[in-house]
Amino acid sequence: MTAEVPLLARARAAFTAVAADPAGQRAAVEALVDELEAGPDSVPEALVLALRALAWADRSALDHTAAARRLDRAVRLARRHALVEPLVEILLSRASVNLERGRSAAAAADVRAAGTLTARATPDLWLARAVLLQNLGRSAESRGLYERVLRERGGSARALAVAANNLALIHAQAGRPALASRYLDAAEGHARELPGLRAGVATSRAWATLQAGRLLEAVAAFEAAVPLYAAAGIPPGEHHLEYVDALADLRLIDEARAVADRAVREFRAHGVDLMAADGELRVASLALLAGDHLGAATAADRAERTLRGQRRGVLAARAAVIGVQARLSDTGPDGADLVRAVRAARTLDGLGAASAAVEAHLVSGRLAVGLHRPAVARRHLERAAALAAPAPVLVRIRGRIAAGLSAELDRDGAGVLRQARAGLADLDRHRAAFASLELRVLASAHGAELGRLGLTQAVRDGSGSRALDWMERTRAAALLAVEPVDGPAVDDDLVALRAAQTELAEATVAGAGDLTPLQARVREIEDGIARLTRGARADRSGSRTVVSPADLRRTLGGRVLVEYAVLDGELLAAVVEPRRTRVVRLGPVAQVRARVGDLLFALRRLSRPGGPAEPARRAADRCLAGLRTLLVEPLRTATDVPVVAVPVGALRRIPWSALWSSPVTVAPSAASWWGSLPRPPDGPGAVALIAGPDLPGAREEVAAIRTAHPDPLVLLPPDSTAAAAAAALRRADLAHLACHSHLRTDNPMFSALQLSDGPLTLHEMGLRGIAPRRMVLAACNTAADTGYAANEVLGFVSALIARGTAGLAASIVVVPDLAAVPLMRRLHTGLAAGETITDALFAARTGMDPEDPADFVSWCAFNAYGGS
Fold this sequence. Notes:
Pfam family, one: CHAT
CATH superfamily of the largest domain: Tetratricopeptide repeat domain
Oligomer: single chain
Domain CHAT: 623-866
InterPro entries: CHAT_dom (IPR024983), TPR-like_helical_dom_sf (IPR011990)
Radius of gyration: 32 Å
Shape: globular
Protein name: CHAT domain-containing protein
């Protein structure tokens, strides 16, 4: 007996030690199991308890297969030796592992079996039942058991921490943030000596903050939780999966999909099917947000089958809704899908999953509208609006959409506009919290449908002024309230990024071997900069520039403003003239997209020396003529009147100067043009002329234009470093950059101008407050901004205008070396004489020979942006 006591005591202590430090205590527990199995005087109870401890270490490392194997063996040993009390503990541990493996029935059987073996229910038994019920979607029942664990004495620190943590999640999901915070405080106290649980509680706090609608605060909390997982020595897979929700709300869809895919693979590989199914659900939702309807439907159906097999009604209902949404977007309404959506809405509503229920009712309403069942549609749309009213802003916006659709169904035009205005006002406040221009642009997607509802109603009413107003409400709105902010201190990161990018470029040119490590280093530095800048807060209330058609008419001074929009596949134009504003229907937008694609292809062929110039030139002329026919002639405006063009979508890549015979200014929105009108320079009018490396015509270009200015600052390679250029640009009133550019459609903020020591990114320009009053970007494709949902746009032109640049000239295509030099010389002659960018570019173009292929490309390539 004397030998048994120390072994038994060590085995009992092993589980407590592993629960506190699974990675650090694993080796000691493995040694104890080996000792017990090899010893001549085996102590069955000690071996059972040691196996339980080792299985818990396996579980913490996400090796659920090994954990289940050890627990199965421990159950057999306990039963063989009639070890009742240890058997209860083993069964409850196996229930947790089985639940996380997605085997809900087996977990329930283990909990029931443990309950029959003990005369008195214990906190551990209540906890096991509560966790099982919560994962089955029966939160009301689990809530009572968690509260009992916390009330009764005798529970372990682990049981108390888990109960408080899970109660917080229930209250957060039900929209009770204050209660959630209180229980999280309690959970943190109980988990103080349990590093693994402390990390989990930190993730729960981040998720609860997200549910409360405090998005930036939630992102910071998610980031703060990461080191806790490393300190505890446990994989952060579940943390990453919860973080996906924050990335999705930020509309960082590509990043979220990468994280979700990685988490699903990790969980599947380790047999953690419960979390893998959660991940599949998120993969489906993200595919839907990305417009991948087939992928969304496939992933949703797979997730729904798995979740139903796990008896997880709430999540299975959410998966069903995603599948229905995907099919609705792809193939239209279907009666069977309406039945599925209604059933899912009823389930989610009944189980208190309010946010998910809003989406389910909204989808049910859409389907019923499409199937001409107005009574069913009203019921679900009104329920969605009611559920969303007290919810955080992003759910509230979905409720506004539902209410707007309901008003549209009732032919209540005023109600449609009222709901759309209220939803976009909410979105303005939400968007204004972000200092990051990237996040502001992405956030606008939440309001795309509200804008469509408002514009549809305005066009239906036949009012040109109201139509223009609704075009403007979702037109580059994210750019209109941007003010310079003090960005985070990332100077060292920016320098490191430039060095890594330069090293990667040199290795690529040299044909080096495996570039993966260099590429990974660049991505890691970019991710760090993005995280810091995304976390910055804006210090403003949410107001943005609003300009009325009357104000526009007064300011246009005889010019005509033409703002294009796409509504249900049809291209529209709002034309603001001195005496009226009218709407012109221009036909299917697909025709224009095809002509734009053909034109850009022809211009690329013409820009290549030695190419077949004549066929490409004929093709370009046909495309330009076709675009005039589609976009200009139906407007019936005077041909000699200066024009402000506000394009949309693919129309941003059009050479607008080549479509009109008068000066043309291009703008992201009417309000952004109005805000960039000529104003006196802030300083003495310094001029910076900068040439980048490896561009044969750059030096010649700078030499040709410097004579137009009395005392310009000139930077040539190797002196035109990023730091020198940044300093010059911050002081300049007028800046000219002749260099290579690198566009990043995956993240336009990392688009860059190539300088002598590496790239100067748009991110860095924003962080350093670089926005000269006027700029000439004589670099290829610098006007090729990337379009986003809700008619948002992001790139060199839009970002610089948003930050305060009042006039730019930039190229929509590749421009041949040296071919643009004459154009630039004439452009700067006009700028030096005090002309606006628009007038100077118009005059410079008239001196070119469009019959020459290279001159023709330059004649087409450059647009003027802004009003100065």
